[in-house]
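Might I ask for a little of your time on a matter of protein folding? What I wish to show you is a protein chain and, alongside it, a tokenised description of its three-dimensional fold. I should value your view on which stretches of the chain appear to form regular backbone elements. You will find the record immediately after this paragraph:
***
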Amino acid sequence: MIATVVYLVPFIVSSSEVGNRFVDFSLEDPHEKKYSQTDMEGKITLVILQSRTTLQTAVDCKTQLKSFVQENQKVQMIAIMDLRKRPPLVPKSVLKKKISGQDPTAKEIPFLLDWDGAVTKPLGGEDSKCRILVVDPALKVVYKQEYKQAGIDSEIKPLIDKLSGG
């Protein structure tokens, strides 16, 4: 048990970020359904921060994390795509359709579009990195790390089990 805790410590957000409340937001998915911070209250939320350049990595990440949501009713997942660096001449409607069509997880996991980076930037989202955040039911960020396949079972699963009391 102690070895597990010691092993997790470097991966949990730094002490200056622990307890920071998740950014207040209002974003839409490609079908114009609105989501906000209140949709996260009372649940453990896995937040995937992605960009156009990390789309396939994010799909792999969400596919791997899906089982946590299916196995635990206290857990939900959302993905937020940073579109600050989108092609300037491509209309938003065309980009919405293209991105939705390339992400097979978009139908089951809310997929929110951050057109100006107002949400992803304060959370540490970058164009070239797919990040995972774990937000507790009180909306505090308790984990923030770049996605790596090996970290799901060794870092995130034990944290979710702890947060959900399982």
